[in-house]
Amino acid sequence: MPFHQLIDLCQIYLLIFTLPKLKYLKIISHQFKDPVPLPFATDNQQLSMIEHLIIDYSITFSELAAILSYIPKVYHLNFWHRDINYPLIQMISTIALSKLTHTSMNISFLEFDEFEIFLSKLPSTLKSFNLVYTEKELEYLDFDMSEQLILQNFPQLEKFYFNYTVYTYDEDEFIFDGCVCDQFISSFWINRQLLLNLRSFLFL
Fold first, then answer.
1. Distance between CA atoms of residues 174 and 156, nearest Å
2. Is 72 left (phi over 0), alpha (psi -120 to 50) or beta?
3. Are 36 and 10 in contact (CB under 8 A)?
4. Distance of CA 119 to the CA centre of its chain
5. Does residue 5 surpass a pLDDT of 80?
6. Chain-centroid distance, C-alpha 19
Protein backbone atom coordinates (compact mmCIF):
# COMPACT_ATOMS: atom_id res chain seq x y z
CA MET A 1 0.00 0.00 0.00
CA PRO A 2 1.45 3.43 -0.92
CA PHE A 3 2.52 5.51 2.07
CA HIS A 4 -0.04 8.25 1.38
CA GLN A 5 -2.81 5.63 1.67
CA LEU A 6 -1.69 4.29 5.02
CA ILE A 7 -4.02 4.90 7.94
CA ASP A 8 -3.20 7.29 10.76
CA LEU A 9 -3.51 5.12 13.88
CA CYS A 10 -3.91 8.12 16.17
CA GLN A 11 -7.07 9.17 14.32
CA ILE A 12 -8.41 5.62 14.50
CA TYR A 13 -8.03 5.60 18.29
CA LEU A 14 -9.71 8.99 18.66
CA LEU A 15 -12.68 7.77 16.59
CA ILE A 16 -12.93 4.51 18.53
CA PHE A 17 -12.90 6.28 21.89
CA THR A 18 -16.05 8.22 20.90
CA LEU A 19 -18.12 5.01 20.59
CA PRO A 20 -20.34 5.17 23.69
CA LYS A 21 -21.18 1.48 24.12
CA LEU A 22 -17.91 -0.19 23.12
CA LYS A 23 -16.52 -2.38 25.91
CA TYR A 24 -14.18 -4.74 24.04
CA LEU A 25 -11.48 -3.72 21.57
CA LYS A 26 -8.78 -5.68 19.78
CA ILE A 27 -6.64 -3.56 17.51
CA ILE A 28 -4.05 -4.96 15.10
CA SER A 29 -1.61 -2.71 13.28
CA HIS A 30 0.16 -3.88 10.13
CA GLN A 31 0.27 -1.00 7.68
CA PHE A 32 -0.15 2.27 9.50
CA LYS A 33 1.81 5.47 9.11
CA ASP A 34 4.53 6.21 11.61
CA PRO A 35 2.19 7.16 14.43
CA VAL A 36 1.49 10.75 15.36
CA PRO A 37 1.59 10.70 19.17
CA LEU A 38 -1.85 10.22 20.66
CA PRO A 39 -2.54 13.19 22.96
CA PHE A 40 -3.47 12.44 26.55
CA ALA A 41 -7.15 12.75 27.38
CA THR A 42 -8.09 16.08 28.94
CA ASP A 43 -10.41 16.66 31.89
CA ASN A 44 -13.30 17.82 29.70
CA GLN A 45 -12.87 15.09 27.07
CA GLN A 46 -15.27 12.20 26.57
CA LEU A 47 -13.77 8.98 27.92
CA SER A 48 -14.33 5.46 26.62
CA MET A 49 -16.29 2.66 28.28
CA ILE A 50 -13.79 0.03 27.06
CA GLU A 51 -13.14 -2.63 29.71
CA HIS A 52 -11.17 -5.21 27.72
CA LEU A 53 -8.34 -3.99 25.47
CA ILE A 54 -6.00 -6.10 23.32
CA ILE A 55 -3.24 -4.16 21.57
CA ASP A 56 -1.87 -6.67 19.07
CA TYR A 57 1.14 -4.70 17.90
CA SER A 58 4.24 -3.24 19.55
CA ILE A 59 3.92 0.03 21.45
CA THR A 60 6.04 2.09 23.81
CA PHE A 61 5.12 2.74 27.43
CA SER A 62 4.48 6.40 26.59
CA GLU A 63 2.01 5.34 23.87
CA LEU A 64 0.35 2.93 26.30
CA ALA A 65 0.05 5.68 28.92
CA ALA A 66 -1.77 7.92 26.42
CA ILE A 67 -4.18 5.13 25.44
CA LEU A 68 -4.92 4.32 29.08
CA SER A 69 -5.86 7.94 29.76
CA TYR A 70 -8.99 7.38 27.61
CA ILE A 71 -10.11 4.08 29.16
CA PRO A 72 -10.38 4.47 32.97
CA LYS A 73 -12.64 1.40 33.26
CA VAL A 74 -10.23 -1.10 31.68
CA TYR A 75 -9.79 -4.26 33.75
CA HIS A 76 -8.35 -6.63 31.12
CA LEU A 77 -5.24 -5.43 29.23
CA ASN A 78 -3.04 -7.23 26.68
CA PHE A 79 -0.15 -5.46 24.93
CA TRP A 80 3.26 -5.83 23.27
CA HIS A 81 6.06 -3.56 24.47
CA ARG A 82 8.41 -2.12 21.84
CA ASP A 83 12.04 -1.68 22.82
CA ILE A 84 13.35 1.87 23.02
CA ASN A 85 16.34 3.35 24.83
CA TYR A 86 14.22 5.07 27.46
CA PRO A 87 11.19 2.98 28.48
CA LEU A 88 9.44 5.91 30.24
CA ILE A 89 7.49 3.57 32.48
CA GLN A 90 7.06 6.51 34.86
CA MET A 91 4.52 7.99 32.44
CA ILE A 92 2.06 5.22 33.36
CA SER A 93 0.20 6.09 36.53
CA THR A 94 -0.97 3.61 39.14
CA ILE A 95 -4.45 5.12 38.79
CA ALA A 96 -4.56 4.16 35.09
CA LEU A 97 -3.92 0.52 36.04
CA SER A 98 -5.91 0.49 39.28
CA LYS A 99 -8.88 -1.53 37.97
CA LEU A 100 -6.85 -4.24 36.25
CA THR A 101 -7.64 -7.82 37.21
CA HIS A 102 -6.08 -9.47 34.15
CA THR A 103 -3.03 -8.39 32.19
CA SER A 104 -0.80 -9.93 29.56
CA MET A 105 2.41 -8.40 28.23
CA ASN A 106 4.85 -9.51 25.55
CA ILE A 107 8.26 -7.88 26.00
CA SER A 108 11.82 -7.95 24.66
CA PHE A 109 14.95 -6.08 25.73
CA LEU A 110 13.32 -4.61 28.83
CA GLU A 111 15.70 -4.42 31.78
CA PHE A 112 14.43 -6.33 34.78
CA ASP A 113 14.54 -3.28 37.06
CA GLU A 114 12.26 -1.45 34.61
CA PHE A 115 9.96 -4.47 34.62
CA GLU A 116 9.85 -4.28 38.43
CA ILE A 117 8.78 -0.63 38.19
CA PHE A 118 5.89 -1.65 35.96
CA LEU A 119 4.90 -4.40 38.41
CA SER A 120 4.87 -1.87 41.25
CA LYS A 121 2.18 0.07 39.39
CA LEU A 122 -0.16 -2.91 39.07
CA PRO A 123 -2.93 -3.25 41.68
CA SER A 124 -2.75 -5.80 44.49
CA THR A 125 -6.12 -7.13 43.31
CA LEU A 126 -4.58 -8.57 40.12
CA LYS A 127 -5.87 -12.10 39.53
CA SER A 128 -4.19 -13.15 36.27
CA PHE A 129 -0.81 -12.21 34.82
CA ASN A 130 0.71 -13.53 31.58
CA LEU A 131 4.28 -12.63 30.66
CA VAL A 132 5.96 -13.52 27.37
CA TYR A 133 9.65 -12.63 27.31
CA THR A 134 11.96 -13.15 24.32
CA GLU A 135 15.50 -12.25 25.29
CA LYS A 136 18.43 -13.56 27.36
CA GLU A 137 18.33 -11.58 30.61
CA LEU A 138 18.55 -14.30 33.25
CA GLU A 139 17.11 -12.14 36.03
CA TYR A 140 13.73 -13.04 34.59
CA LEU A 141 14.53 -16.66 35.50
CA ASP A 142 15.13 -15.90 39.17
CA PHE A 143 11.99 -17.60 40.45
CA ASP A 144 12.88 -16.98 44.09
CA MET A 145 12.70 -13.27 43.33
CA SER A 146 9.47 -13.76 41.39
CA GLU A 147 7.98 -15.63 44.33
CA GLN A 148 8.74 -12.71 46.64
CA LEU A 149 7.31 -10.20 44.16
CA ILE A 150 4.06 -12.17 43.94
CA LEU A 151 3.76 -12.65 47.69
CA GLN A 152 4.43 -8.98 48.43
CA ASN A 153 2.41 -7.39 45.63
CA PHE A 154 -0.26 -9.77 44.35
CA PRO A 155 -1.83 -11.79 47.18
CA GLN A 156 -4.96 -12.45 45.09
CA LEU A 157 -3.10 -13.74 42.03
CA GLU A 158 -4.73 -16.95 40.79
CA LYS A 159 -3.10 -17.46 37.39
CA PHE A 160 0.48 -16.77 36.35
CA TYR A 161 1.85 -17.85 32.99
CA PHE A 162 5.46 -17.17 32.07
CA ASN A 163 6.81 -17.92 28.60
CA TYR A 164 10.57 -17.41 28.32
CA THR A 165 11.86 -17.89 24.78
CA VAL A 166 15.46 -17.40 23.68
CA TYR A 167 16.75 -17.36 20.11
CA THR A 168 20.51 -17.78 19.94
CA TYR A 169 23.37 -18.61 17.61
CA ASP A 170 25.63 -19.52 20.53
CA GLU A 171 25.54 -23.21 21.45
CA ASP A 172 26.90 -22.43 24.94
CA GLU A 173 23.76 -20.42 25.65
CA PHE A 174 21.41 -23.01 24.22
CA ILE A 175 20.83 -25.12 27.35
CA PHE A 176 19.24 -23.52 30.39
CA ASP A 177 21.10 -23.82 33.65
CA GLY A 178 19.44 -26.65 35.61
CA CYS A 179 19.64 -24.83 38.92
CA VAL A 180 17.48 -22.05 37.47
CA CYS A 181 14.71 -24.50 36.65
CA ASP A 182 15.03 -26.17 40.06
CA GLN A 183 13.78 -22.95 41.67
CA PHE A 184 10.47 -23.47 39.93
CA ILE A 185 9.99 -26.91 41.50
CA SER A 186 8.85 -25.65 44.89
CA SER A 187 5.66 -25.85 46.93
CA PHE A 188 4.88 -22.20 46.14
CA TRP A 189 4.65 -22.80 42.38
CA ILE A 190 3.21 -26.31 42.54
CA ASN A 191 0.45 -25.57 45.06
CA ARG A 192 -0.72 -22.57 43.06
CA GLN A 193 -0.43 -24.46 39.77
CA LEU A 194 1.33 -21.50 38.20
CA LEU A 195 2.59 -22.23 34.71
CA LEU A 196 6.02 -21.88 33.19
CA ASN A 197 7.24 -22.46 29.65
CA LEU A 198 10.97 -22.28 28.87
CA ARG A 199 12.11 -22.58 25.28
CA SER A 200 15.43 -22.10 23.56
CA PHE A 201 15.99 -22.09 19.80
CA LEU A 202 19.48 -22.59 18.38
CA PHE A 203 20.29 -21.34 14.87
CA LEU A 204 23.12 -23.32 13.28
1. 35
2. alpha
3. yes
4. 10
5. no
6. 25
- Tell me the pLDDT tens digit for each residue of 82-107: 766 666 777 888 999 999 999 999 98
Question: Which pTM does this prediction carry?
Answer: 0.83
* Structure-model confidence comparison of residues 151 and 193, the more confident one: 151
CA distance 158 to 174: 32
Residue 15 pLDDT = 93
Cα gap 155→172, rounded to integer Å: 38
**Rounded Cα gap, residues 162 and 155, in angstroms:** 18
Give the separation between CA 6 and CA 19, rounded to whole angstroms: 23
Neighbouring-strand partners of residue 79: 105
Strand order in the sheet with 195-202: 24-28, 52-59, 76-81, 102-107, 128-133, 159-168, 195-202
Measured distance CA(142)–CA(138) in Å, rounded? 7
**Separation CA 126–CA 100 (nearest Å):** 6
DSSP secondary structure code for residue 12 in this structure: H
Closest to 194 in 3D by CA, of 183, 179, 202: 183
User: Is 202 in a helix, a strand, or coil?
Assistant: strand
